[in-house]
Each structure stands twice: as structure tokens, then as C-alpha cells.
Amino acid sequence: MRTWLGELERIERPSASDGELRAAEWLAARFEQIGAPARIETESAHGTYWWPIGIGTVAGLAGALAGLGAGRTGRPSPARRALGIFLGAFGAAAIAGDFPPRGRWLRRLLPKRPTHNVVCEIGDPGAGRTVVLVGHHDAAHSGLVFHPGIPDLVSRTGIFRSLDTSPMLMAPVIGGPLLAMLAGLTGSRRLAAVAAALSAGTTAAMADIGLRETVPGANDNGTAVVALLEIARRLLADPPPDLRVILLSTGSEESFSEGMKAFGERHFPDLPAESTFFINLDTVGSPHLTVLRGEGFLKMFEYPAAALELADSTAADLGIELYPNLRIRNGTDGLEALAAGYPTVSICSCTEHKQPANYHWPNDVSENVDFETVDEAIRLAETMTRRLAERWPTGPG
User: Fold this and answer.
1) How many domains would you assign to the chain?
2) In the structure, what pLDDT confidence band is assigned to residue 159 with cuts at 50, 70 and 90?
3) Residue 83 belongs to what domain range?
């Protein structure tokens, strides 16, 4: 796995790029080498998140500036207030609508590029049950907002110590346009000034991310890619009975799960929710393995209780200690399957700051990956897959 990860991290592979295609071809070749033929499915994606989010923050900035203008009374004119309300509402709607698993209406108007999913199917193609194991092979752009010192600084304040979620990183992003709209409604120039500051700062952050190079992406998410390869090797050596297994590595996950959304549009109609289970693996090379209780940028989507019970009991039987009761305020590919109604779990990892190690930073290299955690993720996902061949989880959610 170290060799595989070293090869993958040397491929510069931003979402929906030629490098992402090379990574997909590399992965398909590795599946072929271990005796598990794979195919590459080409889909369409925009390939960024900083453009649709940035358009929303620019609208928020413009709305805030409209609210700062003063007429003879020292307050914004009705026309300026109306413009601030419209631009703030548009910006907030553009941002909120772009977060998975929503329809992402704005990016439909933006330029598209090919993105590439790798699909490997093993086991019994006519089986009554299907397990889909998911990772992603594209890598993220860096940015100053991802500086590793920020989680440490926030952690020292103790703000999130008693909470079961990671920080809501997108709160100030959507907060600027919302405050611009509120400033227009109230005529408050103070609110408009705060909205302008937030929107300008987040617009600058989006521009910074867009101008940066991609990181090596060893932990996020090369670890899941090599985990899929190792799980495939083990399942081929000892196939679980009466089970179809799909090993899926998506492209364009880092542009808000566009590859996974495209996979769903293509394949969900042929994958009944009552007989399909999704196991998502994302960033499994940090010190502490965890199975997420929920995730979502704004709304928290809770994972099904029966699926979590299967993951928790399997981890306990294997002697794997899971970081407890963690929810994240962003999204993985597991969110698309979860929102579509499938029994789903998302296996991830974190540091003591409830964040992935070396997240979106140039030091996300294989030398900094905790391979003991990767091994735990592989054992947990493999054993869950085998247990699903024997019994299907039932219960609420």
C-alpha cells in the first residue's frame, strides 16, 4: 500500500482534469493487476467549488455595498435597500444551493469538463444484495484557510471541546450574503459593514484556493484508493457468498461530490435501496478512526441507526477503537447515497482537533499517513462487507 500510495500522490490530479484521468487509468490498471477488471465511466462536471461559491460571495459583497450607501437622511435609499436584499438573497441561495446533496442550480450554468469514475465489480453479478465501497482519486487545492495552525488555535479556545461536530467552516461564507440581505431589510449600515467584511474575506479565500496548486492528497483521499485495492484483493481471495460488490472511486469529489452525483444519476435507478449498502471511505490515514454519525454543510444528515450499529459492533468485535460520536459540517461522497435513502456508513479519521490530518495542505504526503489507521479502516470495511453477505441490517433509519 505504501508503494501504491507513493505512485498515486505523484500524480497531480485536480478535479475534472487530465491528471484526474491519469489517476483513474492508474487505478484501473492496478485493479487489473490484482485480477479485478475495472472500467472508467466518463461524466460531466464543473470541477470547482470556488467559482459557484465565489459568485455567491461577490453578490453578497455587492449587496452589502449597496446597503452602505447613504442618502440625505444618512440611511440607504429604498432602491439601495431593495438591491441589497436582492443581491444578498441571490448570493445566499447560490451558496446554499451548491452544497451537496442539493441540486446545485448555479453550477449548471458554468463551464463543464469531463470527470472520470472508476468502477470495479466483483462477486456474484446476480446476487440479491449489493455492497458499494466508495473512495475518490482526485485531490484538493490548498489555500490559506486550510493552514494547519488554524484547527490548533481554534481547539485551544475550547469552543468545540464539548460539541460533537467539527467547526462549521461555511458559516462565514453564507453569513456575508445573509447579513447583506438583513441589512437591506433593516436599513442598518452597521450590518452592511459586517456583511461587506465577511463577503470580501470569503471572496478572497475562494480566489486564493482557486489560484493554488493541488496537494499530493495522500490522506485525502489516496488512503481510500489503496484501501479499495486491498479490499478487492482480499475479497477475490475469499469471495463472500451471494454478494455483489462494487468498488467505486469517484472523480471530482473535491468539487462537491460531482463524480458521486453523476454515478447516482447513472446507477441509482438500478440499485434498490432495500438491497444496496454503501460503505464510504474518506481520509482514513489520520491518527483516530471514526464512523461519522452525521454530516452536512448546513443541514445535518444523520446516518441510519441500523447501519451505524453494524459498524460499531463490527469495530468492537475487531478490537478497533472508534473516535466517538463525531459529526462533520462539510460533506463526503457518503452524503449523496445517504440523502438518496440508502443504508450508508462513512468511515473516516481525524486528529484530536476533530479534523483530518494535513487537510488540504502540501504536507499531505504518504510519509505523514498513519498506516495503522488505514489498516483498521480496511479490516472494518472488509468485515462489514462479509457480514452483510450473511445478514442485512434492519431497524429505524
Assistant:
1) 2
2) low
3) 50-108+152-211
Say if residue 82 is exposed, middle or buried (CB neighbours under 10 Å; 0-12, 13-18, 19+): middle
129 and 266 assigned to the same domain: yes
Three-state DSSP state, 353: coil
Q: What is the pLDDT of residues 325-336, one digit of tens each?
A: 999 999 999 999
**65 inside domain:** yes
Regarding whether 365 and 302 lie in a shared domain, the answer is yes
- Looking at the chain, the whole-number percentage of residues with pLDDT higher than 70 is 94
Q: How far apart are CA 269 and CA 290, in angstroms?
A: 30
Phi then psi dihedrals of residue 2, to 5 deg: -60, -40
Judged against a pLDDT cut of 60, whether residue 396 lies above it is answered with no
Q: Are residues 42 and 97 in the same domain?
A: no
Nearest in space to 63 (alpha carbons), one of 244, 242, 193: 193
Nearest-angstrom CA–CA distance, 349 and 286: 5
Task: Tell me if 195 sits within 8 A of 63, measured CB to CB.
Answer: yes
Does the pTM surpass 0.85? The reply is yes
Mean pLDDT of 201-213: 97
DSSP line for 140-200: -B--GGG-THHHHHHHHHTTTTT-SB---TTHHHHHHHHHHHHHHHHT-HHHHHHHHHHHH
